[in-house]
Amino acid sequence: MSNPFRLVIVGGGIAGLALATRLGKSLGRSGKLDITLVDKGFSHVWKPMLHCFAAGTARNENDRITFISHAAGHNFRFCYGEISGLDRANRRITLAPLVEKDDDNVVLEERYLDYDGIVFAIGSRANDFGTPGVLEHCIFLDNVVEANNFNERFRHALLQAYGRGTPVDIAIVGGGATGVQLAAELHKALEIGSLYNFTPKTPDMRVTLLEAGPRILPSFPEDVSAAAHKQLEALNISVRTGAMVSGVDESGFLLKDGSRVDAQFRVWAAGVKAPDVTRALDGLECTRGGQFVVKPSLQTTVDDRIFAMGDCSSIQNDPLPPTAQVARQEAHHLAKHLPAWILNQKPVPAFTFNNKGAIVALGSYNGWGTFPDGKTFGGGALHGLSARLGHTALYRQHQIELYGLRRGLIACLSDWLDGFVRPSVRMD
Ligand SMILES: Cc1cc2nc3c(=O)[nH]c(=O)nc-3n(C[C@H](O)[C@H](O)[C@H](O)COP(=O)(O)OP(=O)(O)OC[C@H]3O[C@@H](n4cnc5c(N)ncnc54)[C@H](O)[C@@H]3O)c2cc1C
User: Strand runs (DSSP E) across 194-315, as ranges?
Assistant: First the structure.
């Protein structure tokens, strides 16, 4: 019997883990496919929850899926590492040496993985557009490590604020879903925290949301933007549109009109670009934002053995927004068609996006959604609740897809029960 086809999936996020799990259950189980998932982290989280981890309103011990154990139960291998190079002629990828941050100690040397096919699913980061001072003075929320670091600093700042009676100032750049949801979630954290009344007075928390464009949530219809803007202001969150940031220093943001917004916490949640490594991968074609350019079949334009999906990819002449919905559907497309491509050399058909609309939730305060035909829903006590539940349902659907129905339902139940025994915001 010939050796099984070696498929390497790089990136275990929403798209990569869904693909590895689905293929593991089919070709992986039968031994026809040798699947390796590579990730620079040890566990998977649902990225649209990062702002809840940052605010401490969700606990990620419950929400992480550990790659090693998930792989063992789903007929694929996990390889911890960060891709740093690609040799297409010899079909080999390079993983960067693993070096300890504090003392430069090399834990693992550079390693190599041979492949017959690759699927890249390495996601994206916020884009600083070269704005001076952003990298040095802003916090990013692009992965669970950054979200947890933010939360640790946030809790320290709250402790100081309670102890000294001084305000906490936070400014967030980017009025897309990430910035808007983070602003509301931070407000919710402070509101819940104040219920524990460990000092008589709740400190002031000043949150400013800065958006360069004319309105927040630009990918949503105008009525949703206007309603969300109003809701944020009702929560005492200052929303400034048309506010173009031209620089950042250790005490705040400088705007293009010459004014300043000073803040102890400066969060950059604007723009999207692919991880820098994409440009170093043996001449694969990239967009200006570093995303791999792919054909409608999701194969890269220069090498049919290499696919890319999710935020790190852009379909030639028909780019789609970098959302969880697109990432999942692309993973499902490849899970369905890669087996015939691998076993029978059948071409992978063109991916078609089935737009099911979008939802944005402002913590437990309100939520809105939009249907594919542009009609909107949500807002207010009942409809806001339906939109918020819809937002949660997307996460539960993802959990059930990865865990399977029985374990997925147990995970939902255990999260619900957890709510009865633990504080609803992280305090330790
Ligand atoms: C705070 C926040 C809120 C959001 N809210 C929403 C929302 O409400 N709705 C929505 O549709 N979308 C939302 N998004 C966007 C959504 O999360 C992304 O579109 C989605 O996660 C993309 O999935 P992906 O699989 O392409 O990448 P990701 O889920 O980002 O996964 C990428 C994976 O690749 C790994 N990786 C990266 N670089 C390397 C490397 N060099 N080597 C090895 N591994 C690597 C990472 O560790 C990660 O596991 C939100 C994003 C953020 C940050």
Answer: 205-211, 238-241, 245-249, 252-255, 260-262, 265-268, 292-294, 306-308, 313-315
